Amino acid sequence: MAESKQVVLRTEHLKSFYILDMQGTQKVVKAVNDVNLEIYENEVYSIAGESGCGKTTLLKTLFNEIVPPQRLVDGKLYYRINSEEVDVTTFSAEEKRRLRMEYISYIPQGSMSVFNPVIKIKGTYEDFIGSHVEVKNRDEIFAIARERIQELGLPKNVLDVYPHQLSGGMRQRVTIALASSLNPQIMIGDEPTTALDVVVQRGVIQMLKDIQKKLKNTIIMVTHDMGVHANIADRIGIMYAGKIVEEAPTEKIFDMPLHPYTQFLINSLPKFGDKTMRESVPGSPPSLADLPTGCPFHPRCPHVKDICREKMPETIKVDAEHKVACWLVEEEFNG
Amino acid sequence: MKVLRDLFRDYRFTVSFVVLVFIVTMAVLSFFSPYDPTLWHVVPRDMPPSSEYVMGTDSNGQDIFWQATFAVRNSLIISLISGIVSRVIAILVGMIAGYKGGNIDRILMFIGDSLLVIPLFLIFVMLAMMIREHMNLVTLGLMLAVFGWAWDARLIRSMVLSLRERDFTMTAILSGTGTLKLVIREYMPFTTPLIFSTLINNMSWAIGLEITLAILGLVNLNIPTLGTMLNWALFYQSILLGRWWWILTPVILSLLVFIALYWFSVSISEYLDPRTRIQRVGA
Amino acid sequence: MDKLLEANNLTKRFSQGNVISRAILTAVDNINFYIKPAEIFTLAGESGCGKTTTAKMILGFEEVTSGQLLRNGEPQTDKEKAWITEGVQAIFQDPFSTFNPMRRVDAYFHETVYNFKLAKTRKDAIDWIDQKLQLVGLTYQDVAGKYPSEFSGGQLQRISIARALLTDPKLIIADEPVSMVDASLRMSIVNLFKQLRDELGVSILYITHDLATAYYVSDRIAIMFRGKIVEMGSVEDVLMNPRHPYSKLLRDSIPQADPKLRWDSRVTLAELEHEEYSRKGCRFAGRCPEVMDICKTVVPPDVRIDDVFVHCHLYEELEEA
């Protein structure tokens, strides 16, 4: 099934670091450290990882928004525009701007910063949509916006209020509606449901799925909540210390997690209705400025071997859709 | 010391630092002046700059260079008094008003706003008419301080208002800390950069106001300051009569002081604010 | 039965607006509950349901509009500072804002020890602090001289708990303590709560909207909606067999970490929030899948079924029976 789908976004050995120069000493934060992704059209690809693993940086890099002190140190980023693969890292600011909203849009964490607090919601809509679409007058813009808002089940009058009059959950949904207004091919979401109540979270996930089904586009999102992944993702990538350590379709990840970190992630969640004792992942994630040698997970890994401390594991394909980067798995697979 | 080295990378800090060192040196030199600045006719009058009189002499018969050292010293003293006293008032008022809120806040802000609105010159003209002869550096400094705290008190108050809502205020309260200790220990680190940059701004403002008042003749003209030097130079028509060395000395010194204070304040504030610091470094 | 804390008809009203138009928001509307010693009691609900306001009233940060709070049977007076007189302590949602980023973390520990006179010498103070830190899996060495930014969210939250334990409180109010911590690390904090209850006899008022951890850790639970407690009882009864439609909705909306258990029904969310507060009758009537005519006009009664309280018209007949 995956074979017939087109790749809509691709990265090759993507490396994006923060280079900080504080009081004379240089600090390099390896937030995205050799990431290879192939994301298809018409799918939801979600990235799982703890805080500090580099996921926000990865999203910003995928969105082609790289601002110093963040730098693209190596690697390539390709979008598929008009059936052609284009290397977008070399684009000028104007070319990048034109892609935004129409081809690729971004839903940030924390919806409050998207809307200008002193103008009504429709003012922000006007700014965003009006700068991308040639329209004769404002009414056309609002017509597009209102249609999309109603399709998604939001109250009609949401455009006519100020941001502070809406609850956090409602703002988040309006942000998502805004991001989808021009039917972008790719939507990127950074923790779109974090800090929302369970019911609102469910509504937001529902909305994202509705949009995806309707536009048949791609959603790339990041969250640390495996329950959210289980409910929305088609494929999941597990991120640790700047690398993707495992990638597979959702069912496979939950049925057969191969990387020890993935196993920990899944087992550390309380299953509702089950009071058996569960444990968190032991230890804490490494600092991206001071990574351990070899495999970055080895200090916390219960199955650590000598080779893990020395060499970074390579990514192997366990089957057509399941990739893992782990020496343990490599051994079992090959030997 | 790494901090200093970092600061010196900004040319504005380096230049302003050098100029300020120069200014302070001049002020210190005043203690070694061979002439009493309040006397007249101690040297030949109206001599242009020469090897004997580095900046020439003025129509009162004073050596301009040594006069300038006193002028710089006194102007600095006035501005320091104004700056420091007004900081103290601004901090007390701003923090109490911000933390306590309610009626205390309203009363204090009312007083502050009134002071902001009152036209300064009218007050100073009145005061000058009453006590000009008895005005000295300290009284002038204090008068300037009274008018210089209101704006910054508001800034500090709004900072405290937002800090009061943060969780760590509750943590401090739950730890049993009393109001005064809380406000000092918890909020001072946030307000210190603000206080420092407003101190420098206030000093700049004080020197400017002092010069203006002096030119208008509203201060005790017997005390040499940058402003009174200007006043005497204008009084004796030094521009008209071509005695450029007399008028230029206080003008150039004042300009140096203003630019140096401004650059000093701006470069330090930018350094202290983590956001602008990263931008400086990113490229 | 010993009641550590009891709330009777607790109400909090806020007035909003200005001189021209004032609106009264009843954030907490006539609620009744109690907490026993050595028990973990959960107050669950969406944001804006009144749980944080209730916590603030218990701590004494907000004034009670009407009703009563009793501690060990004694009524609380308005001016009382609960943390001083009763050793009630609290921990908050965002560990990074719980501590002043410009101050060292151990400063708060030493301040607490000094203010509450918990030790006579500095060495005794350090011993006391070290003891409490060990309860959360850390030592004084780990913490001394460090700034909040040097710790991870999970560590900082544990440090916050250790600070709360300094005064040997009988009740700790935990306001969304794990919602900002990564899902994979929540267990360590929540297991710690169980330990505190079992080994030290501390009661915890656990405020959250995460029913998964609530089920895992608490003894009894009260579900709040827009200022009212809509269901209350033991966590087994309320979460395994929810009666109130809102409790059912909350329970069904927990995202399960299992793709086979995806949601199969759709949910409608509230329109603009403040409308729900100003409803007559039951506040959930606008979204309730089992709404009846009476719900829109008459405030539901508190019905007791077995050991569970439900605030709903659906169960009215049962009480009479």
Write the layout of secondary structure elements.
The complex is a heterotrimer of chains A (335), B (283) and C (321).
Chain A: E1 7-22, E2 25-35, E3 38-40, E4 44-48, H1 55-62, E5 70-81, E6 84-87, H2 93-99, E7 104-107, H3 121-130, H4 138-151, H5 168-180, E8 186-190, H6 198-215, E9 218-223, H7 226-232, E10 235-240, E11 243-249, H8 250-255, H9 260-267, H10 306-310, E12 315-319, E13 322-325, H11 327-334
Chain B: H1 2-8, H2 11-29, H3 64-100, H4 102-117, H5 120-131, H6 137-148, H7 150-164, H8 167-174, H9 179-215, H10 226-235, H11 244-272, H12 274-282
Helix pairs in contact in B: 2-3, 2-11, 3-4, 3-6, 3-7, 3-9, 3-10, 3-11, 4-7, 6-9, 7-9, 9-10, 9-11, 10-11
Chain C: E1 5-17, E2 22-35, E3 40-44, H1 51-59, E4 66-71, E5 74-75, H2 82-85, E6 88-91, H3 95-98, H4 105-115, H5 122-135, H6 140-143, H7 153-165, E7 171-175, H8 186-200, E8 203-208, H9 211-217, E9 220-225, E10 228-234, H10 235-240, H11 245-252, H12 273-277, E11 302-305, E12 308-311, H13 316-320
Parallel strand pairs in C: 3-8, 3-9, 6-7, 7-8
Antiparallel strand pairs in C: 1-2, 1-4, 4-5, 9-10, 10-12, 11-12
